[in-house]
Specification:
The protein has about 325 residues and is an alpha+beta fold. The protein has helices at about 1-25, 35-40, 200-220, 225-230, 230-240, 245-260, and strands spanning about 50-60, 60-65, 70-75, 80-85, 95-105, 120-130, 140-145, 150-155, 160-165, 175-180, 265, 275-280, 285-290, 300-305, 310-315, 320, 335. A hairpin with a 2-residue loop joins β2 and β3 (about 70-75).
Length: about 325
Amino acid sequence: MKNVILLCVSVLNLWGCSQAEKHQEVNPILTTENYIPTMLKEIKHYPKEPVYQVYVRNSLCLYEVLVNDYPIAKLFNYGQEMTPYNINNGILKSGKQKITLRLYPAPEEYSRSGNVLSPNVSCNLEIEYADKKDPEYTSVAVKEFKLPTKIKMAGEHNDMAIPEFEGAGKEYYEITYEFDATVPYENIGWSKGQDLTKLDRKKLEETTLNFYQNQWNLYKNKENDKVFSFLFQKEKETTQASYDDEQSLLDTKNSYLKPFTIGSYALEQIKDYDFKIFGNGKLITLQQKSLDPRLRSNSALWGKYKNEKGSTIANFRNYYLYLPEGKKLEDGLEVIR
């Protein structure tokens, strides 16, 4: 009888262990060799694969665009453009999405308003999507947003109503709109990250800087596999959001490998940086302080190289870090975008 009882206990213990192991998900460690086959296993494909874009049409202003408080686009080298930006990386799942527009004055040589926003500023956002499975890639309009205006009375008899940009006279203007999106995937992203604004600011900044400095050392020492080892969760979600195929993955891999494969690549020192928090308090990144339009708001981890024409090209290594629920800051921040 004693033997039977011991056998039952052993079986129960084995069953309990197998259940625990079953619920423990261990992410594969990415390397340069396994990146493409690993991602191909992770990416799911669907009968319809909507890709959302925002077109930005600006005049007399510079801008930044964020989707769900994740940076998507920026223009600090002034020009009047209507540029499409893919925004799926900021869309974690179907439903209501928030898109934020941040405006800054155009350089003084383009505007008579100096270092403040002109009454004639305009910046329209047009959101569309197309099905990646559609051979025609037909665009479907989702929503259009225009800046709010106020009426100014002018003319000899003060009887002429002229619409002016609501933010005229300000050095900075921000507005958030909402739109609905439908996507077949569901990414966790930073949604289960801790609110970094509630942590000790000094320790948070030290941990962030340590991460960036460690990455700098890996690039400097040409340890490409160790760089890839940090990227699984980020790549799992971003490649899914764009429904990548093998060629797209190869392009991404080659982009990551530029610091290791281009002989003229030279890393810049990490200096003159700001800690920036996004993702409604759940993401942190290290950005350059420089107001040079080529560097402004770009990653503090970067390098330069010469292309085949001899031109100098800047290469920014962007990381958005978060702290998953249940994890301590001492354990380190993780890459999610």
